[in-house]
Please model this.
Amino acid sequence: MDIDGVVIFNFLPNGTIVPDGDHQPAVGDTLGVPFTAIGVRLERIDVGVYRITAPGARWLDGWKVEIFKNENSENTVRVALVQEDGAVVIKCVDPESREPKDVVYMMTVRIGVSGAIDYLPPALPDVGSFAPSIGLPDSLSQQADTPAVEN
Model:
């Protein structure tokens, strides 16, 4: 199956993608597949260096990352975004010392994905087993055939 769209996800300082809850991954409407089927992988390469692989992974125009801010509303890291073949890389440094620094708390990432993936959509359930037959239920149809009694 070929895909072309956008994924948004959050990851932790250790390079783990947040799988569920309020910060679970999201896929763009055009993809039509769950996030887990796309094959997005994130690896912490070194202190402050994270490599994201996925089919056709690329940085998009517009916003790319959201950085956690401290109590003074200042970014906790500065980032450099690098494009590689089939991967995107995030390099983080301390805003003051410029030394490599891991993400603080969590980072939100938005990337484009495109290409072929192995995904077979689940079979649709038999609608007949869920939908009632069209027409009046038996009890109502019997009532409709019974003349009304007047007092």
